[in-house]
Amino acid sequence: MMLIEKKSGELVPFRRYKVQLILEQLGVVGRDQQQILTAVENITSSAQITTREIDAVVYAQLQELAPKAAERYATIQKLEGEVWRQALNLENKLSAFSTQDAAVLHENANKDSRVFNTQRDMTAGMVGKSAGLRLLPETVAKAHIRGDLHWHDLDYTPLSPMTNCCLVDFDYMLAHGYQLGNAQVESPKSIQTATAQMAQIIANVASSQYGGTSANRVDQVLAPYAAMNYQKHLVDANQWVPAEQRVQYAQKQTRKDIYDAMQGLEYEINTLSSAQGQTPFVTLGFGLGTSWLEREIQIAILKIRIKGIGPDHRTAIFPKLVYTLKRGLNMQPTEPNYDIKRLAIECSAKRMYPDVLNYDKIVEITGSFKAPMGCRSFLQAWRDANGEEINSGRMNLGVVTVNLPRIAIQAHGNQDLFWEIFVDRLALAKKALKMKLARTKEAMPENAPVLYQNGAFGHKLQDTDAVDQLFAKGRATISLGYIGLYEVGTLFYGPNWEHNATAHAFTVEIVRRMHAACQAWEAEDGYHYSLYSTPAESLTDKFCRLDKARYGVIPDVTDKDYYTNSFHYDVRKHPNPFEKILFEEAYPHYASGGFIHYCEYPNLRQNPAALEAVWDFAYDHIGYLGTNTPIDKCYECGFEGDFKPTARGFRCPECGNHNPKTCDVVKRTCGYLGNPQQRPMIHGRHAEIAARQKNMTTQEVQDGYEINLWDTES
Q: Is residue 522 in a domain?
């Protein structure tokens, strides 16, 4: 294998196709292209050379054969150099923020860039991005800027060795006590105190990492503290209540305590603000408990969400609720928790949450059952040295996402070339992930005491302990992400390939090979590399925008101005839920490190049986299912349903109201819900995307046309 030396001094394999792609971009084809390629191959066949020497040969040949192309080549080289310099320029980044650049301000749909603490975090993030690019291997940094891949959370890492998302070990922390700030906190003696402590822990964890914060089996974790309430009420009852009424009295009082505690937790989470300037991205997993206390906690969570938050009873955005379905527990009317399943259906129809986890399929796909970390990241089965299965207290170390549509565009319909480029991009992603891993391992326990020293990660490390002991041997995950399988299928098989078995098998093979690469990397160093179906919020725009600028308008690919998230069905089409589930079910078996499916529905409040039919069907096909249904509400005319997005914001279809103070607009953005009406300009982006899904022009939207917005993830 011939190696060439890049400008950074790094040695990389010579790839003929890279020169060919440059020539095709310049419009140099046929005999001229072949002559230039031969000239390049001649100088690479005898000795190790540099990219500068290859550039010189290409430029000289172009001057001789295609002078205008030579001029364009020189211009492109100059522009790429300027893009690189600007990416490293901190002043340029701060200027984009200070001038209210929409792409900068609204990169995250749940960050309100109007408030001071968010502005402070975003300013620090500009510094982090500029410095982070300098810390990355130059090949990785330039690939990120070009859009070959995406280094997620550049504003936090690699400048800081922070972790991504986690399953907090609340069970351990509540049972053993912990220290936060100046306070040594002892184990709670009631469910009210336990939930108050959970909120404190969530705030601290969210400020010590940059990803989602999840609680696994929260009904089972909190039940022992509810039992303490029950025992206290029994003591009181023995003194004041007739004997035959004591148990009933204690249960009634405990039931109220549980409801009040869970309501308090919901309010506290929605009023928290982390150091990142946003409400912590919190997920509560529940549904497996069978004791009366565990059942009451489940019921309280759902009833509180159905009721809504505040005097207007608005839909709470956080925490994300994830309810578990399990055959024999809550699937059929004869099963003990079926009544709670019915309540979960009502809640999902009215508030979109809970999403559902199908117990048996999650075990099949990931090896064990657990809630997701954040919106969709899943840990794989793991046992400690004693053979005990461990889920809570584990974490993800970060994500790097590959731009799959770009590989397909560059392959020009040649699948052999696609796989050749694919292998090189995975090698580049591997280098990036190794960098993420190495940097995260450099953290000291004292950098994030709540994580490393007070039990959130399941251990209490000393100052001098290596944090790597919590990451190594597969305990943590580090994720290879991907985007745009729909566009890849379109480039090779046309825009309606969903019903083409050969096309579907090809896209599944892409995911399988990425999974195989992760397995090979793990075999090399013992860390668990997982394949992750990226929730590409702003990345759907970024990758497509970069590819459109470089390769032009490609029907059903770049002309949409967005790429489709991960393995999802084309959002412009409207398959029924059963078709969508069957189409998508194969992918998560390889992308087991992160996945979620959505189904789209009309207003379901009067037809819960329809939602239950989909949940029941999904149980044996997919592991994780979200409900997208219109739940907007106008407080001026009373309309409930789907608000219409326009360039001026979402508006009530009955009375035209678009005042965020008198309407509640909730849309799903990737794995989480959001209030686009509360974020100036974000709703404009939503409206623009929705317009494209309806094949309408942006001008038509600005003129006031009404369009339907479903899942904004794409």
A: no
Which residue range(s) make up the domain with 253?
A: 176-366
Give pLDDT, residue 342.
98
Work out how many domains the chain is built from and give that number.
1
Distance between CA atoms of residues 269 and 271, nearest Å: 5
For the stretch 401-426, pLDDT in tens is: 999 999 999 999 999 999 999 999 99
SS3 99: coil
Residue 687 in this model has a pLDDT that exceeds 90: no
| Total-model pTM | 0.89
Least confident of 196-210, 224-238, 694-708: 694-708
Q: Look at residue 282 and tell me if it is in a domain.
A: yes
Q: Is 278 helix (H, G, I), strand (E, B) or coil?
A: coil
CA distance 210 to 546: 26
Q: Are 288 and 217 in contact (CB under 8 A)?
A: yes
pLDDT of residue 97: 56
Q: Is residue 586 part of a domain?
A: no
Tokens, residue 679: 């974020």
> Count H helices, E strands: the chain?
25, 23
Q: Are 563 and 536 in contact (CB under 8 A)?
A: yes
Show the tokens assigned to 352: 């979109």
Q: Hey, which residues are catalytic here?
A: 164-165, 373, 375, 377, 396, 532, 537, 671
N residues, the chain: 714
Interacting residues of 265 by C-beta distance below 8 A, sequence separation 6+: 195, 196, 198, 199
